[in-house]
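User: structure tokens for this one?
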Amino acid sequence: MIALEVKNLCKSFGDLKAVDNASFEVPEGSIFGLLGRNGAGKTTTIRMMMNIYPPDSGEVIFKGINSGTEFNSKVGYLPEERGLYKKMKVMETLLFFAEIKGKSGRKTAKKAKEYLERFDLADRINSKIEDLSKGNQQKVQFISTVLHDPEILILDELFSGLDPINTNLLKEIILEFKARGRVILFSTHIMDFAEKMCDHIAIIDRGVIKLNGSMSDIKAKYSHNNIILNYEGDISFVKDQPFVEKISDYGQTVGIKISHEKYSQELLRMLMDRNVKVKKFDANDISLEEIFIDLVGDEENTEVAHV
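Assistant:
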């Protein structure tokens, strides 16, 4: 069932078309990634969804409710530009933001303490925000985003600046929300996070949605005749093979596009014959990063793909 619909959103700032007819759907109980380079239109799209920027045209609908006050009350929104009241203490900050969303009382305070314990912040409950590290401030802001148990999470560049341990903790909490049927939408330019977490994605570039669909369908479409190779040794000979159409080099891992799937086993034999240590050889597989670069790396590419 589709829970969130973004329909034909447009926004211009003077002569700049920041978002141009953006549309996508987010099913109930799923994680959706809005992906793009810095300045691609991700934040502008999200701000229109939150009614911070009124769209020039288009609409946002969540379970039949158009964006506005009632919609916002159901959302936990973490903006790209973090903002907390520096002089307030940690607990009073959390309870303040919860009350804005209609949650208060002992149950809310108890839940706030539980979140602080999970984030290893229980000993900072009475600390002022300004006395926390930037990372701890970000954790407090995330707790304030989820404390009122929203039906939808909208998270703009959520993982920016977090260490791996806290990143994993945020992932755990997001997956808990997903398991309870909530909708999670986050924007990022980090493809690895998106590939591991998202059920559905949209790639936006220069304000235009270039790709939109389920992760499984997108990978199935773009992985055809593509090989992911992790190796040790010299593979310089590969680029000279007539059946090799493209190589995407990431160091010890490469993506290799071949002209026909029949050549995958021939390529593997060639690697073995040249004593290349093959650690991973996945035929008909492709990374989201390769797809992303193919779509937005070519400025002339304006085709929109729906999968």
